[in-house]
Every structure is written in structure tokens, then in C-alpha cells.
Automatic annotation (TrEMBL):
Pfam families: Lipoprotein_Ltp. It comes from Companilactobacillus versmoldensis DSM 14857 = KCTC 3814. It comes from the Bacteria. Residues 196-242, 245-292 form the Putative host cell surface-exposed lipoprotein Ltp-like HTH region domain. This is Putative host cell surface-exposed lipoprotein Ltp-like HTH region domain-containing protein.
Length: 292
């Protein structure tokens, strides 16, 4: 009997020890699993790079070809927007396919560069100056020096002019009157454009300068229900009165196609002239291809 009693106590102790070991192992596994999840969360947080935006220059001057390149650095995949000063609608937008993008500007003014990732935004101000302004400042300095020299010369010549004024007066009294010339008829005045026509013309200029669109492309963008939604009359007025170099616009579009799509000459011509593509004329497309 005593042997059986001791055997039962021994079995009970073994079962109790096994239960304690199971509880301890479960706690260790749970702790290690929680630690692994915490490390995974930290790694995910580190991978999310902080949103940033850098411009290689905050002020730039157009060169003699009326253009300037600005390098923009931001996170890959961010959306890039460009706004003209005081406007709410972007004149340009794209997705950054690398950390550094080069944007071409062809018009002076103040711009706002915005990058966006989900609900995060960062913006920087960019000022593009016209090279004519700087040249005019230099010319004004030169002219001021010339004016000072001319004033000295004029003082020296006053005495000579006074001496000859008497003889000039006598000749004027005896000279015959010149025949009167007929007054040219005034040119007919152009009708004042409506507010919508003026706005369409301004928007057309922006599309030409920044997106290098063709004449038909600008008209479609102005009148499209998915674009600016101007009336057909306002869109036609804009393209008829817009001063634009469509050969250069075609050349810039061709350069963009070459950089990003690497097209053959035949495919490039089709893309430039297609009504579903850029919509340039054959002459404009040939100009672009021959000047690439």
C-alpha cells in the first residue's frame, strides 16, 4: 500500500511539472512573437522616407533662347504640380519617376512648385526672370554715361547756334511753304473681345508655353468638357489670336517623346501628326524631326 501511495504522488508531481513547462514555453513564444511584430513595425516605419522637395535654384534667368532648366529633387512616386502665381489650377503635373526631375521653363514669372504624397504636401516658390530685363539695366547705365557726354557737347554748341540763328531766320522768311500731305484714313478698330475670349486666349498662351501643344491640341484642350470647357467661339478666338511658334512646340514635343518613349522616326512622325496624338501639321512635324 505504501508503495502505491508513493507512486501516485510521483505521477502527480510529473503532471504538475509538465503543466508549468507548457505555461512557461507559451509565455516565451508569445513574448518573442510580440517582439518580432514590433521589429517589423519599426522596419516599415524606417522604409517610409520623409517627404522632401529641393530646387537646384530658387531664382533663374531665361537664356538667349528664352528657356531655363530647373532640377527638382523629391521622393520617387510623388506627384509634382506647377502653379502660376495667384492661380489655383496647375499648369503642369506629372509623377516623379526618379528622385531628380528636370523641368523646362519658357516664360518669366513667379511659380509655386508643389509635391504631394497621399495627404502630405510641400511647396516652394520659384522666380524666373527675363534676360531682357537684365540687359535693359546694363543699357540704361551705358545710356546715362552717354547722356552726360552729350550734355557737355550741347553747351559747347549753343554759342555757334546763337551766331547762326539770324541768317537762318532770314532764309525761313523767304522760303516757300511745303505742300500739305493728305491725312491717312484711320484704320478700323477691332471689336473688344469678351471676358471669356480674353480668358481663353490667356489660357491658350499658357498651354503653348508650358505644354508645347499644337494649334489643334490647344483648341481641343480649351473646348473639351474634360478640359477648360470654353465655348467653341472663345476657343477659336484664342487660337486665331495666339502668337505661338508651333514649329518649336513640335520640336519640344518630339524631344519629350524621344526621352521617354524612344520612338523611331516613322512612329514619331505619326505621333506628332495624329489627331489622337499631338495634332501638329506635317510641316511642323518634319521641322521637329529634322532639328532633333
Amino acid at each position: 500500500m505504501s508503495f502505491l501511495k508513493k507512486g501516485k504522488q510521483k505521477i502527480f508531481v510529473m503532471i504538475f511539472a509538465t503543466l508549468l513547462a507548457g505555461i512557461f514555453i507559451g509565455a516565451v513564444v508569445k513574448h518573442s512573437g510580440g517582439k518580432a511584430d514590433h521589429l517589423k513595425q519599426e522596419q516599415t516605419t524606417k522604409k517610409q522616407e520623409k517627404l522632401f522637395l529641393k530646387l537646384d535654384k530658387s531664382e533663374a534667368t531665361l537664356n538667349d533662347d528664352s528657356e531655363v532648366d530647373i532640377d527638382i529633387s523629391t521622393n520617387k512616386g510623388n506627384k509634382i504640380f506647377i502653379y502660376e502665381d495667384g492661380t489655383k489650377k496647375p499648369i503642369f503635373k506629372e509623377t516623379a519617376d526618379s528622385r531628380t526631375s528636370t523641368l523646362n521653363f519658357y516664360d518669366d514669372g513667379e511659380y509655386k512648385i508643389v509635391v504631394q504624397r497621399k495627404n502630405q504636401k510641400i511647396s516652394k516658390k520659384l522666380i524666373i526672370k527675363d534676360n531682357k530685363d537684365e540687359k535693359s539695366d546694363e543699357d540704361s547705365d551705358d545710356n546715362s554715361e552717354e547722356d552726360s557726354d552729350d550734355s557737355e557737347d550741347s553747351e559747347d554748341s549753343e554759342e555757334t547756334d546763337d551766331a547762326s540763328s539770324t541768317s537762318d531766320t532770314t532764309e525761313d522768311e523767304t522760303s516757300e511753304p511745303e505742300p500739305s500731305t493728305p491725312t491717312p484714313a484711320p484704320e478700323p478698330t477691332k471689336p473688344t473681345p469678351s471676358m471669356e475670349q480674353s480668358n481663353a486666349l490667356a489660357k491658350a498662351g499658357s498651354y503653348s508655353r508650358h505644354l508645347h501643344l499644337s494649334k489643334s491640341g490647344i483648341y481641343k484642350q480649351l473646348t473639351s468638357p474634360y478640359g477648360e470647357k470654353f465655348s467653341a467661339e472663345a476657343g477659336q478666338y484664342a487660337v486665331d489670336n495666339l502668337v505661338a511658334n508651333y514649329n518649336e512646340n513640335a520640336l519640344e514635343s518630339a524631344r519629350s517623346y524621344q526621352r521617354h518613349l524612344h520612338l523611331s522616326t516613322g512612329r514619331l512622325f505619326e505621333q506628332l501628326t495624329s489627331e489622337y496624338g499631338s495634332g501638329f501639321t506635317a510641316d511642323e512635324a518634319n521641322y521637329a524631326i529634322s532639328h532633333l
